[in-house]
Amino acid sequence: MVLQQEPTPFVSVSGEERIMTSMMQELPLDPAKLNRVGNPNRAEVRKVRTLFRWILGSDPHPTPKQMTVIRESILSGDPLADAVVAMYGRLPAGEGRKLLDQALEHGIDTVSDAPAELRSLFKQIDHEPIWLDRELLRLGCEVSYRVGISGELVLRNMSLMGGYLAGAAAKPLVFTGQLDRMANRRLVETGKFWMDVNTPGGLERDKEGFKSAVRVRLMHAQVRNMLVKSDSWDMRWGYPLNQWDSMGTILEFSVIFLTGLRALGYLFSRREREAVVHLWRYVGYLMGVDERILPTNEQDSMRALYHLIATIGDSDDDTRRLGEALANASLQGREGWLQENIGKLEYTLRAGYTRYILGDEAADKLGLPRTLTKYFWPAQAPLRMGAELVRKATPGSNRMLMWVGEKARKNAFPEQVKKLKADTTFTPVKKLFR
């Protein structure tokens, strides 16, 4: 049975009041009918619970009321962005996006007779939260620059791969073909977003990081609108690109990112870890994640990560399909004997890292080959840790590593965009829907 639901209608007070937060909207399905929420009391969660209890100093297990919030979040969209997409539908094709771009580039007050939906969205994103610390934003960006290509390894082969283990959460990618049909191209487009928001100063109101966060938010709302109107979407999987999965994505870029790097031997101070979490807290705010489920610090983020792990749903055929497609991206676009063999080595090393960091059971579900390269990564960790100790003791080393990381990005990224003809405007392509 397929259950369909139109996006939550726009709710306005005096024309411009903020739309009610997503968890207050009428749910499209009885939460008890969701088939994607794992039982947090199942046996395989017990070891993880013990580990997180030790990390946090308290029991992170979700209470019954927290489970209610989780289920409601899985059935909640982003009313502010969803309302803007509904507004797009009332205007000539392309006109809504033009209004959005004008407001992003020049401010909402420059839009003549701006629709109430657009004003409500910009009232939220133009508001600077009282908790925002721009020095922490800068430090979070510097950490991401400093780790160089290791950051890409972790994001791709731990964060993204791990996200595919929840079959229902990965459905939007499968339906839009974003990674199973055009893996390398979509990786470049995701890389554009990551680079924009991680550039020091990039989240200032007039910079690309801020604009990219908002454009990705609206792209998600457009995909969500298309999926809930399709005949193929089953609401028992949850709302597509819902609040809970969006919060999980923020964790993928923050504490999961840091965990994967630390497993490689990287060292971070407490302030550096908090800075990365703070950076992605603000990105999450701009992207419409409800502040009531958006972690405020590293401790909150680790507790939320446990909740994600404890309630993750079953893997399915789409898990394997996406895992294999992402792994095979290393083999694509290789010309000549040397490049082909470099691609095979990269494929094996990346698969080994996923096995090392996520475990053999998860890697099997993702369709990754069994390889001894999983032992390479822990073996090199002591050497990396030694290099990190030297870095910490050497004045100016952080600045040098940041310069190297920035130069590598600026040199490689435009060439990748050109080669793959990647769209970095964050516009969904309807024809990709299966």
UniProtKB/TrEMBL annotation:
GO terms for molecular function: oxidoreductase activity. It comes from the Bacteria. Residues 158-374 form the ER-bound oxygenase mpaB/mpaB'/Rubber oxygenase catalytic domain. It holds the Pfam family MPAB_Lcp_cat. PANTHER family: ER-BOUND OXYGENASE MPAB_MPAB'_RUBBER OXYGENASE CATALYTIC DOMAIN-CONTAINING PROTEIN (PTHR37539:SF1), SECRETED PROTEIN-RELATED (PTHR37539). This is DUF2236 domain-containing protein. It comes from Alcanivorax profundi. The lineage of its organism: Bacteria, Pseudomonadati, Pseudomonadota, Gammaproteobacteria, Oceanospirillales.
